[in-house]
Amino acid sequence: MKDTTNENHLDFVGDNLAINFINTRRMVEGQLTDTLQSDSDVKAWLRRLEVPVTTGSLPFSDGVLLKRTRQLREIALAAVQDRKSGKKPSLAALNRFLADAPSHAVLTTDDTRNIRVTRVYGKETVEAFLAPVAEAVADLLADGDFNFVRHCEGNACVMWFYDRTKGHRRRWCTSTGCGNRAKVAAFRARASKI
Ligand SMILES: [Zn+2]
Predict the structure, then answer these.
(1) Radius of gyration (Cα) for the chain, nearest Å?
(2) How remote is the CA of residue 154 from the centroid of ligand 1, in Å?
(3) Confidence band (pLDDT; 50, 70, 90) for 194?
(4) Could you report the per-residue pLDDT of 60-114, keeping only the tens digit for each?
(5) Per-residue pLDDT at 30 exceeds 50
(6) What is the distance between the alpha carbons of residues 123 and 5, in angstroms, rounded to a whole number?
(7) I want to staple 18 with a disulfide (CB 3.0 to 4.6 A). Which of 67, 116, 140, 172 is the partner?
(8) Ligand 1 geometric centre to CA of 177 (Å)
(9) Domain residues of the chain, as ranges?
(10) Was domain 5-193 assigned CATH 1.10.3300.10?
(11) Residues bordering ligand 1, an ion, CB closer than 5 Å
(12) Strands 25-28 vs 31-34: parallel, antiparallel or unpaired
């Protein structure tokens, strides 16, 4: 039986919603794999990442959510790569996406009379449905510190992460995956020299 616990754990290693989104394309058993294969995969991923979305049926036809999600992910990946390599990222595609995802602020109070501001999105378009993710990508590009946005150093690994460790020396997507493989390789290299 395939163990999916570890795969779900990989949903969070980016330590940033936009990067976790990019990381839905990842190496699984040595194969570059898209973990999003259907509209329900997208919805399940959004739920796991606690992205606020509507629970009812979607007012657009089957497959549209998956298609637009993959397009948004491509846009996000290209922009993050450009930003990381010091190139000026093309923002037109992301801006178009955001323009189709209007939202407004709404104030709510709880029992203790705290007042909170939350955002409400129109649910009529697939872009509005994906707006929290698109906005996370926009926030990362605008406010992220790209010294700490890094690609995993693992051989053939495609994962990214936001390094929030104290010393900012994080190198791997996971210490048990790429980090451990590198440790084993370094140990073997040392052993072969003896
Ligand atoms: Zn890795």
Answers:
(1) 19
(2) 5
(3) low
(4) 888 999 999 999 999 999 999 999 999 999 999 999 999 998 888 999 998 888 9
(5) yes
(6) 31
(7) 140
(8) 7
(9) 5-193
(10) yes
(11) 152, 154, 157, 159, 173, 178
(12) antiparallel
